[in-house]
Specification:
Length: 281
């Protein structure tokens, strides 16, 4: 695994190369997700979004369809998988007798297991570089609540439109595993939007809100967004990420503080930790 770990702090992201077998797992899972998206809507919505009551998790699992746009709402469909909820997801797939849905669960599990070594190794490097005691151990203990999120943004946008509103993630850190097209951007530490350098050979890892909290502000959750290109404005786009959580660390208080899409991009970059910590419960 080759990368400059200091960029995780100074630039808000770091490129990490990963082995061919992991890239293959990403491709296989994405192929299953695309097949799932091709199912009739009346079949897809039978796969409900399930609340996730596992300690430390901040999202549910299953399928979401978001067709109504809003000021901070994206038009998309997505699917969340965690190892903690694997059996419930499989039971749901079996209950609707859908082999495509069941295969998506199988492939999502393989992908989740496939990133574990990379995630643990990266967490240990972060712990050592930024003196975050116990960080790697907590990441390893939280693997069952790592969320694999598959996304499909619909076409019908305008070129240059923000189809994924600017936000920071609630995770400890996030792996950007797959982008079907250009358009993913991050806000650098000078408050300029830059293209995020995701490729087939490397994943891009960014700090999340829990990572900023756990590091006492040493790391900053990176704001990012998706802009429609001339192609994706018409055809839409696919992506996949892994939200790596810290189950023993306080979580962002969405109910009290609001959706992160409602904040100004980069709001947290210069926020004192004492003020930042008030956003957590």
């Amino acid at each position: 695994m080759s990368h400059d770990i200091q960029k995780f702090k100074t630039e808000g992201l770091v490129n990490v190369s990963y082995p061919a077998e992991l890239r293959n797992a990403v491709e296989v899972a994405m192929n299953s997700w695309k097949k799932f998206c091709e199912l009739p809507e009346e079949v897809r919505i039978k796969f409900p979004y399930l609340p996730n009551s596992v300690n430390g998790s901040v999202s549910g699992v299953g399928y979401e369809l978001k067709k109504v746009p809003g000021a901070t709402l994206d038009q998309k469909e997505d699917f969340h998988f965690t190892l903690a909820k694997e059996q419930e997801l499989l039971d749901t797939a079996n209950s609707i007798s859908n082999e495509i849905a069941a295969q998506l669960i199988v492939d999502a599990k393989k992908l989740t297991e496939g990133i574990q070594i990379l995630v643990n190794d990266f967490a240990l490097k972060v712990e050592k570089e930024f003196s975050i005691e116990g960080f790697a151990d907590e990441i390893e203990r939280s693997h069952d609540v790592t969320i694999i999120r598959f996304l499909h943004y619909f076409g019908g946008a305008s070129t240059g439109e923000e189809i994924a509103k600017a936000h920071s993630d609630k995770s400890g850190f996030t792996l950007h595993l797959y982008e079907s097209d250009p358009g993913l951007q991050y806000l650098d530490r000078s408050y300029n939007w830059q293209e995020m350098p995701v490729s087939h050979e490397e994943t891009v890892i960014i700090p999340g809100m829990r990572g900023q909290y756990r590091s006492k502000g040493e790391l900053k959750a990176t704001s990012h967004r998706v802009i429609a290109t001339s192609d994706t404005a018409k055809t839409g786009r696919y992506s996949a990420v892994a939200f790596v959580h810290l189950k023993d660390t306080p979580q962002y208080n969405k109910a009290g503080a609001g959706r992160l899409q409602e904040f100004k991009p980069g709001f947290n970059y210069e926020m004192p930790f004492e003020e930042f910590s008030k956003l957590f419960i």
